[in-house]
Amino acid sequence: MKKSVTLLLLFAASLFAIAGFGAVPDWHMSPDSGELIAPNIALAGLIVNRDNLNTLFISLKTTFNNAFSATTGQWQKIAMKVPSTSGQNDYKWLSTFPRMRKWIGEKAIKSLAGFTYTIVNDDWEATVEVNRNDMEDDNLGIYGPQAQMAGFSAAQLPDEIVFDLVNNGFTSPCFDGQYFFDTDHLVAGASVANKGTKALSAATLAAAQASYGAYRTAMKKFKDDEGRPLNITPNILLVPPALEDTANA
Question: Could you tell me the pTM of the whole model?
Answer without folding.
Answer: 0.65
